[in-house]
Amino acid sequence: ETVAAHYKVSSPAHRSYADCEACNACYQALLSDAVSQYGDFDGFKASYSSHQLHAKDITATTDNFDISHPLYGKLCVFTGTLEKMQRKDAMQLVVNLGGQCGDNVTAKTNYLILGNNDFCSLIKDGKSNKQKKAESLILKGKDIQILSENVFYDLVLNQ
User: Fold this and answer.
1) What pLDDT band is residue 102 in, cutting at 50, 70 and 90?
2) pTM of the prediction?
3) Residue 67 phi/psi, 5° resolution?
4) 11 Cβ contact list (under 8 Å, min separation 6)
5) SS3 assignment, position 70
6) 4: Cβ–Cβ under 8 A, 6 or more apart, which residues?
7) Over the range 4-40, which residues count as b (16 or more CB within 10 Å of their CB) and which as e?
8) What is the DSSP letter of 11?
9) What is the DSSP letter of 10?
10) Angle subtended by helix axes 149-157 and 87-96, to nearest 10
11) Could you tell me the pLDDT band of residue 57, with boundaries at 50, 70 and 90?
């Protein structure tokens, strides 16, 4: 019903044929969105493949860095789902500014960027394990800044 409402597909009264029609209409709308965003269905599938994104896989596409940028030489870690872009693209922004990305929060982390955790069933108290680890390290005196997604975008896009 949620997907049908999003795509303005009439929600049937739970009759098998009408349910099938509504399901197909939702599928076609989802497919259209996937093709418009990823070029084709294979591109969509590849973006959600079982290959997990690792920070070490992201390399700079430039060597012209602004050494005065706040992210230059800094280690950034992301947690949660970003709402404005894919994590890979956000990580690319960081490394193209001369920063580094990590997969886990450590004592060397400078910034933890918080995405949305609302849809993660493993999170019970609103905080990811990465956020809990960063907060613990901060209490121990480590200089880690926790940034919201919007503050991150202001930092990388408006400098």
Assistant:
1) very high
2) 0.67
3) -70, -10
4) 1, 4, 5, 22
5) coil
6) 10, 11, 22, 25, 26
7) beebebeebeeeeeeeeebeebbeebeeeebeeeeee
8) P
9) P
10) 40
11) confident
Helix (H/G/I), strand (E/B), else coil: 44: helix
Measured distance CA(133)–CA(19) in Å, rounded? 46
Second-level CATH architecture of 55-157: 3-Layer(aba) Sandwich (3.40)
| Average pLDDT score, the chain | 87
Give the other-Cβ count within 10 Å of 61's Cβ: 8
Q: What's the rounded Cα separation, in Å, for the pair 71 and 152?
A: 10
CB 130 within 8 A of CB 104: yes
Domain boundaries in the chain? Answer: 2-47, 55-157
And the tokens for 85? 């872009």
Dist CA 68 CA 25 (whole Å):
51
Task: Identify how many contiguous H helices and E strands the chain contains and give both numbers.
Answer: 6, 4
Number of C-beta neighbours around residue 95 at 10 A:
19
Quickly state the pLDDT bin for 159 (edges 50, 70, 90): low
The alpha carbon dihedral of 118, 149, 111, 72 has a sign of: positive
